[in-house]
Design brief:
Layout lengths: L1 H18 L2 H6 L2 H33 L8 H30 L14 H28 L1 H8 L21 H15 L6 H17 L14 H10 L10 H6 L16
Helix pairs in contact: 1-3, 3-4, 3-8, 4-7, 5-6, 5-7
């Protein structure tokens, strides 16, 4: 069992060695190495994803009446995101630590379960994550102290013309971390391939940028940025992560075009 658990640490060590200088790698304990690696990668990934979306958005906006935020506004959003990133990566590093120490149902090789089980477990995991992120996000709105002190800073971007891809990670340091929590909790109950989990977490981070780009995708049942923009301008509804299913099931789905005249609640 101990040798089996070492496989997780060997994988994260390999990632750490790629990102961190050798001297720094040898100076720090494993957890801090992993946290620093994840944080540095996030510092690089965030602007790359946001700039990509902005350039896509410029082409989209040039043929529409969309108005982009000023460069100054997007810089402030980026600064807010960079304050939050180290706390979010602390949570994700904690999930890695849980797997390395046998607290989860993670397995290191797909051959440990076989491809059919790998696919089934991954689908189950994603479905439960969708449920968990929906409720984590919704409760951050419904529980007033949490909304006021943690989630409200992200919702200061409540007007359509100040929402941008840089908005995605901008907010209170605990905001993104709390919404990430279902990813780690569910690992304790559902078998998930460790590398796949790390990849899904990376996709989630990029999705947080894309969902704020204010484009108008036609990819049902994806919870596209048009739905999420309406979430910001209305102050409620459309709490989902990747899809509209949870909002549809729990009665909080609102189509942005059908509800274009919705008045934001006081």
């Amino acid at each position: 069992m101990e040798d089996y658990m070492k496989m997780f640490m060997e994988e994260t060590n390999w990632y750490n060695e790629i990102v961190l200088p050798k001297k720094l790698h040898s100076m720090l304990p494993h957890f801090l190495r992993s946290w620093l690696r994840t944080t540095l990668c996030a510092f690089l990934l965030y602007p790359l994803a946001a700039f990509f979306c902005v350039n896509f958005w410029k082409r989209y906006a040039s043929s529409s009446k969309e108005k982009m935020p000023s460069k100054r506004e997007m810089v402030w959003q980026a600064l807010g995101a960079y304050q939050s990133i180290p706390f979010s990566t602390l949570f994700s590093t904690g999930f890695e630590w849980m797997a390395e120490n046998g607290w989860t149902q993670c397995y290191p090789r797909i051959s440990d379960v076989g491809w059919p089980s790998y696919v089934i477990y991954t689908i189950i995991y994603l479905f439960i994550v969708e449920f968990g992120v929906y409720w984590a996000h919704r409760l951050m709105h419904d529980i007033k102290p949490i909304y006021k002190y943690i989630h409200a800073p992200h919702h200061r971007y409540s007007k359509e013309n100040i929402i941008s891809p840089f908005t995605g990670w901008s907010g209170h340091p605990l905001d993104g971390a709390l919404q990430e929590t279902p990813y780690g909790i569910i690992l304790m109950f559902v078998p998930v391939h460790f590398t796949t989990f790390l990849g899904l977490f990376l996709v989630e981070a990029v999705w947080g940028v894309i969902i704020h780009d204010r484009s108008d995708p036609k990819a049902w049942p994806i919870m596209g940025s048009n739905y999420h923009t309406f979430h910001h301008t209305s102050g409620r509804y459309n709490y989902g992560n990747y899809t509209i299913f949870m909002d549809w099931f729990f009665g909080t789905l609102r189509h942005p075009k059908l509800n274009a005249n919705h008045v934001k609640p006081s």
